[in-house]
C-alpha cells in the first residue's frame, strides 16, 4: 500500500488556505487536514472540492483560547486521533488576519492584540500542539507577508498591527529552524493576492485590487513548499517566486 502524505492547513475555508487545500487534494495519496475557526464556519466550499484517488479531506475546528489553551489543544489532538491521523508531514500555518491597516498613531492596542492573536500566537499554538505528531523530517510553513519585513519596510504604508505581528511570527519560524534539526521551517510571502485580506490592504492604500490571482499564488507557494529542505531554504523567508525576502 502506498503511504499517504499528510498536510495540515489552517484557515482552509477561504482565500489562500482554500486554494492550497484544493490543489493538494488533487494529488493522489494525500491527506489534507483542513482546520477552520469554529464548527459554525461555512465549509461548503471545502466539502465540494474534487479529491484524487486514495486521498482524503478531514475538516477540524480549532479556535485559539488564551484562557484555556490546553483544552483546545487536547480537543484538536483527540479529533485527529478519532480520524486515525498519527503523523503530519507538513504543517501549513496559513490562517491570518489583515483587517485594519493604520499608521502607528492611529493603531489601537485592541487592533494590535487581535493581529497578534491571529498572526503570531495562533501559529505558535498550532506548532506546540502538533509537534508530537510531526514526522521526521517534517515541514513547518508559515504563510507570512513581505509587510512583516523590517529591512524592506515599504515606506510609510499603514501596516503597524499587521506588520509587527507577522515579524513576530517570522522570528518564531527561524527559531524553530535552529531549535529542531528535523523540522524544515520556512516563511513564505504568497504575493499580493485577490482575497479578502489582500483587498483590505488594497482599500487602505487606495488601490483598486490586488494584482495576483489565487491560482498564481497557490502554484508559487506550493513550489516553495515542495522544494524546501533543511539544507536549502529552511530558516529563510522566501516569496512565492522563490526570491529571498529580507527579514
Ligand atoms: P482571507 O481573509 O481570505 O482568509 C483568512 C483565513 O484566516 C480565514 O480562513 C480565516 O478564518 C482565518 N483566520 C484568521 N484569523 C483566525 C483566527 N484567529 N483563528 C482561526 N482562523 C483565523 O485571507 P488570505 O487567504 O489572503 O490570507 C491567508 C494568509 O496569507 C494570511 O496569513 C495572510 O496574512 C497571508 N497573506 C495574504 C496576502 C494577500 O495579498 N492576500 C499577502 C500576504 C500575506 P475565518 O473565515 O473564520 O475568518
Number of strands: 7
Mean pLDDT: 95
Distance between the termini: 43 Å
> Helix- and strand-based class?
alpha/beta
Helix content: 25-40%
Keywords: NADP
Family: Belongs to the short-chain dehydrogenases/reductases (SDR) family.
GO cellular component, one term: cytoplasm
Protein name: NAD(P)-binding protein
Q: Please, could you describe this protein's structure?
A:
Keywords: NADP. It comes from Hyaloscypha variabilis (strain UAMH 11265 / GT02V1 / F) (Meliniomyces variabilis). GO terms for molecular function: oxidoreductase activity. Belongs to the short-chain dehydrogenases/reductases (SDR) family. InterPro entries: Fungal_SecMetab_SDRs, NAD(P)-bd_dom_sf, Sc_DH/Rdtase_CS, SDR_fam. By secondary structure, the protein is α/β, with parallel strands linked by helices. The chain has one domain (5-239): Rossmann fold (3-Layer(aba) Sandwich), CATH 3.40.50.720. It has seven helices and seven strands, in the order βαβαβαβαβαβααβ. Strands 3-2-1-4-5-6-7 form a seven-stranded parallel beta sheet, with helices on both faces. Strand 5, helix 5 (160-179) and strand 6 (183-189) form a beta-alpha-beta unit. The longest helix is centred in the middle third of the chain and has 22 residues, at 109-130. The protein is globular and about 50 Å long. The model has no long low-confidence stretch (mean pLDDT 95). Bound molecules: NADPH dihydro-nicotinamide-adenine-dinucleotide phosphate. NADPH dihydro-nicotinamide-adenine-dinucleotide phosphate is lined by residues 11, 13-17, 37, 41, 63-64, 94-98, 117-118, 122, 143, 145, 189-190, 192-193, 195-198, 210.
